[in-house]
Specification:
alpha/beta, Rossmann fold, 6-stranded mixed beta sheet
């Protein structure tokens, strides 16, 4: 969006990656009951349930802060719950509980697109509205996906930045969150497509999970540098993996020899960026993602957000474009040594 960089200045309580297109084919048409579900009765406080991939991650704590701001403005009851770590089965359990409690809208950042979709279809059949954000489920299991950035935009930005730093040739590796994370699988697909299209002299040697943990990502990065002695860059596409990879490079004494980039929060990565360990961090405004998700959920429940709409108004953030069933937050933003100290989240 044209005003995207300014959005980063709006949020004071934000923190940070990344991100999801569904990975499989839809299994069945959306239940008819979902389309016919009535709007909440007049005077009844709307209940919006928001689920992160892991509620302890700084990224989703920041999303929650933005969601709470929107909920306060709208006068809705926000329920925030999720697994303590990335756990697709636990996400299903929580959705089942929300169905029993009769929440009005369920918003989920899907750890596993296929795994969560059966439960979300059940919620739709019970008359509950369903949105996804950050990482998508299967299309028929929700009405809209609040997309922080298109998978292609993320993949292209990461790849182009890596190519610039590598001088257009050499070996690099990716540290992802998990092998089942649908958004990261989608980014990886676009990264590989971009390499094939524009950078034939750059080789992706491997993709390994760091399980959304800094310490494990640090261990993985250390192993990568040992296994691939000609490695020129580590691309971390999980927020926890970026500082983990940077610490590994620092401890190995390979600052400048092995470049580090990734999807992450400015505040978490400032020490590494300012000291030259990490070259650049790419992300979006995570607080705005939570804010927009709650506004979209409220509009969906009230019937003011409908299939075919081309835009949505979200409070103080203004109007956002809708492409098909994707509500777009904006384009990725590159934080580097020249600008990262201007941001506080």
């Amino acid at each position: 969006m044209k005003r995207f960089p300014s959005l980063f200045l709006v949020a004071g309580a934000t923190a940070a990656l990344f991100l999801s297109a569904c990975g499989g084919k839809s299994e069945a048409p959306a239940p008819a009951a979902s389309a016919a579900a009535p709007a909440p009765a007049a005077g009844k406080q709307l209940k919006i349930a928001l689920m992160p991939k892991a509620k302890g991650l700084g990224y989703f704590i920041s999303v929650k802060a933005g969601a709470e701001k929107a909920a306060k403005e709208l006068g809705v009851d926000l329920i925030y719950d999720g697994p303590t770590d990335s756990n697709a089965a636990k996400q299903n359990e929580i959705v089942e509980n929300w169905i029993t409690l009769g929440e009005d809208v369920i918003c989920v950042a899907a750890e596993n697109a296929e795994g969560i979709s059966t439960a979300l279809r059940k919620a739709q059949a019970a008359g509950i509205k369903v949105l996804t954000y950050d990482a998508d489920a299967q299309k028929d299991a929700r009405s809209f996906f609040v997309n922080q950035a298109t998978p292609k935009g993320i993949g292209d930005t990461l790849t182009d930045e890596a190519a610039r730093l590598m001088g257009g040739k050499g070996e690099f590796a990716i540290i992802t969150a998990s092998v089942t994370a649908s958004n990261q699988k989608s980014w990886q697909n676009f990264i590989e497509a971009r390499l094939k299209e524009k950078y034939p002299d750059i080789k992706l040697v491997t993709v390994v999970p760091g399980n959304d943990m800094k310490d494990q990502s640090q261990t993985v990065a250390t192993t990568l540098m040992s296994t691939y002695p000609d490695l020129k860059l580590i691309m971390a596409i999980s927020t926890a993996a970026v500082p983990g990879a940077a610490e590994a490079v620092k401890q190995a004494g390979k600052v400048g020899k092995v470049k580090v980039i990734g999807l992450g929060m400015p505040n978490e990565n400032k020490p590494y960026v300012n000291s030259g360990v990490t070259d650049s961090v790419i992300l979006w405004n995570t607080g705005d993602l939570g804010y927009l998700t709650v506004y979209a959920a409220d509009a969906l429940a009230k019937g003011t957000l409908k299939p075919g709409d081309k835009s949505i108004k979200a409070g103080s953030l203004g109007t956002f474009e809708i492409q098909d069933d994707n509500i777009l937050l904006g384009k990725p933003y590159i934080f580097n040594k020249d600008n990262i100290n201007k941001f506080d989240f």
